[in-house]
Amino acid sequence: MCHMSFCSLHLQPHHTVPRLQRHQLIRPEHDLDQLICPEHDRPLEFYCRDHRQPLCVLCTYTLHKDHHTVPLKEQCEAQKKDLQQKIQERRGKVLEVQRSVDLSLTKANAEEEEGVQFFNDIIKSVLQSMVQFRQSIEKKHEEVKEDAEGLMADLQSEISELELRQKEMEEALNSDNHLDYIQFFTSVKPAPELNDWTEVSVQVPSYKGRFDIALSELKIKLFPKIRIAVEEALKQAKKYSVEVTLDPLTAHPNLHLSLRNKLVLCSPQVNPRVDNPQRFSKLYNVLGKEKFSAGQFYFEVQVKDKPQWFLGVTEGDANRKLKPDDLTPENGYWVKAGGNQRNRWSSTEKVGVFVDYDEGLVCFFDTETSTIVDSFTDCYFRTDVLPLLSPGSCYSDKNTAPLILTPVVA
């Protein structure tokens, strides 16, 4: 390779002479020193991929003898190909992200459409009930008003008769003939027959009863719709049921496991367990052995006869030495408290826990009523998650019942 620069006139033979046409012409370089190996004063025609620097042919036999070297042109082609591949990968990623956005929109629209339709049906039923309620109130009021107007008309008629008689009597008194007055208004024109209004009154109804009736009718109308929707949610959740087995290595020393690690109860008697980073030492918790890092899963726990319990999930690397107030999503815990002394859970005997890892959702079902009693939404799971159970404090004679992982019945 010649690194001299020529004008267009001197280059003319390279375009006409066959032997010179085989020469490779490149653009002129302004700084030729950069193209020469400072060590051997030879052209830089190779590239060391180990040290990422250009070399001359002698460098490939000396300092870079055992290195991965290639011709500069090959390296340029490789870098060009690598760059093109990175561009293609990123374009592919753009398409992938856009497809995710499109899929999200499709799912969002479908869920929104279904939800809006459901709520519109509910609103329609509520509005119909409200119209019927108002009509019943107004109808009853019109009946009262009609009765009152009838009474007032009768009263007004008697008042008119009495006022006419009063006028006639006043005119008769002007004659000063009191005997004729008495005889005329006693025998000839006696007083008209009048109603006894002493016990007559308008009964004002209590409209409250009509609201109670309307509310009961609305509940009867709405309950099947809501029941079907809620039961469908639990039915779908049960499709992702998993078998959970408790991990003794994570159990607090006061927790006792049995039934092949499906049952846990708290006791004042301490188990002789060796402490480890995975074990809970301040909270009466135990984790399931199973880890989940994608998709959905569902499990059920019997909580019968317990005034206190805690259920949920936690991240696999969450700190196990925390205090009760620290069991928060920020610390990797999605846990809800319950018990038969808490209003929302007072009659609950079995709780279903459903987790959608990808959607960031944790739901707590009362399996008897098929209702979602509590939930976490927009959860951000950083690592895999594990089921968490806690039978609550064992220093109360009222909280001795165990928590039991039970098979899921579809």
CATH class of the domain at 248-406: Mainly Beta
- Spatially, the strands of the biggest sheet line up as 4-5-14-7-10-11-12
- Helices and strands: which structural class? alpha+beta
Q: For the terminal residues, how far apart are their CA atoms?
A: 80 Å
CATH superfamily of the domain at 248-406: SPRY domain
Could you characterize the architecture of this molecule?
The chain is an alpha+beta fold and 410 residues long. Among the domains are: 127-238; 248-406, SPRY domain (Jelly Rolls), CATH 2.60.120. It is 38% helix and 17% strand. The protein is built from 5 helices and 14 strands. It has a 7-stranded antiparallel β-sheet with strand order 4-5-14-7-10-11-12. Helix 3 runs antiparallel to helix 5 (208-238). It is elongated. 17% of the residues are buried.
